[in-house]
Design a protein that fits this description.
The chain is mostly helical. The chain folds into two domains: 216 residues, 3-Layer(aba) Sandwich (Rossmann fold); 80 residues, Tyrosyl-Transfer RNA Synthetase. It has a three-stranded parallel beta sheet with strand order 1-2-3. The chain has a two-stranded parallel sheet with strand order 4-5. The structure holds tryptophan (TRP).
Length: 329
């Protein structure tokens, strides 16, 4: 039997190279040999957005899904939908919450990090934030998925999902498979600041949908070897993020780059021009596809409506089964 894969992303708007290389590329690959279900986790987004901010969710969903489709997510192969369009997940979340010890949730590292970041005491954070991994568990098991491709930061959530499933199965009989985290092995992509992971909030990123000019402009601002003050100083490629990015976008240039940088026969400006060209070449087919989809009004909405319909068929069956097991019907 083919593996059923589930994964989700919160609607963050346009995606960047780090999102593509760290997750999306893998999602596209997985479609070839598995039954995949991909969700826009808009209810999860409500753990960080409030009031007027929630009005951004719709547009951010549309922009993100355009990137998914441009990257090669094929809605004919993979169920592609928005979490809130299949409200059965909320039912399952509530039911699972009845058998999930609060202590498990308070111990989750991402929860503790968030509380610290917000500078709040645990008393003041929302009930929904504490339950974030329960909702994530509901996402995965509503579709009885076996495998969940995620980054390392999400592994504790999937481990927790496994515990929730084990407990449910013990209490109510074998119902759900224990989902396995499927680590995406790809090197962390460092952003243009040369030190931090590429991220939108740090503004050190390159959007997949950026124009060629924007891409070039951003690449030209990238930090290289900070000790290379003059064009005539030899550079140190091994501490230079531009060199690291050449590995992905210009593998054929790598060797020459190393030699010429260390011999100071090429400067960072010229080397960055080569990187910008490499990135633009790499992204050209995706950008072309995106323009195609953008030119079809209502297309994304149709894809998501169809996806929700498919997802809902599976979801209603699972809820029926859970109701029976839990003595509700
Ligand atoms: N919490 C995940 C993240 O922030 C997104 C997500 C929501 C998810 N539901 C999921 C990931 C289900 C995997 C499976 O990245």
């Amino acid at each position: 039997m083919a593996t059923r894969v589930f994964s989700g992303m919160r609607p963050s708007g346009r995606l960047h190279l780090g999102n593509y290389l760290g997750a999306l590329q893998n999602w596209v690959e997985l479609q070839k040999t598995n039954e995949c279900i991909y969700a826009v986790a808009d209810i999860h987004a409500l753990t960080t957005l409030q009031g007027a901010e929630t009005q951004e969710i719709k547009n951010n969903t549309e922009e993100m899904v355009l990137d998914w489709l441009a990257a090669g997510i094929d809605p004919e192969k993979s169920i592609t939908f928005v979490q809130s369009h299949v409200p059965e997940v909320l039912t399952l979340h509530t039911l699972l919450s009845m058998s999930t010890p609060l202590g498990w949730l308070l111990r989750v590292p991402t929860f503790k990090d968030r509380v610290r970041q917000m500078g709040e005491s645990e008393e003041n954070v929302s009930y929904g934030l504490v339950g974030y991994p329960v909702l994530q568990t509901a996402d995965v098991i509503l579709y009885k998925a076996d495998a969940v491709p995620v980054g390392a930061d999400q592994v504790p959530h999937i481990e927790l999902a496994r515990e929730i499933v084990r407990r449910f199965n013990r209490l109510y009989g074998d119902t759900f498979p224990e989902p396995q985290p499927k680590l995406t092995e790809s090197p962390t992509i460092i952003g243009l600041d040369g030190v931090n992971k590429m991220s939108k909030s740090l503004d050190n990123h390159i959007e997949l949908a950026a124009t060629e000019e924007e891409t070039a402009k951003r690449v030209m601002s990238a930090v290289t070897d900070t000790q290379r003050a003059r064009r005539t100083d030899p550079g140190r490629p091994l501490v230079c993020n531009v060199y690291a990015l050449h590995k992905v976008f210009n593998p054929e240039w790598l060797e020459e780059c190393y030699e010429r940088c260390t011999a100071a026969t090429i400067g960072c400006v010229d080397d960055k021009k080569i990187l910008a060209e490499g990135i633009n070449r790499y992204l050209a087919p995706m950008r072309e596809r995106r323009r195609e989809f953008e030119g079809r009004p209502g297309y994304v909405r149709e894809v998501l409506a169809h996806g929700a319909e498919q997802a809902r068929k599976i979801a209603t069956k699972t809820i029926e089964e859970v109701y029976q097991r839990m003595g509700l019907s």
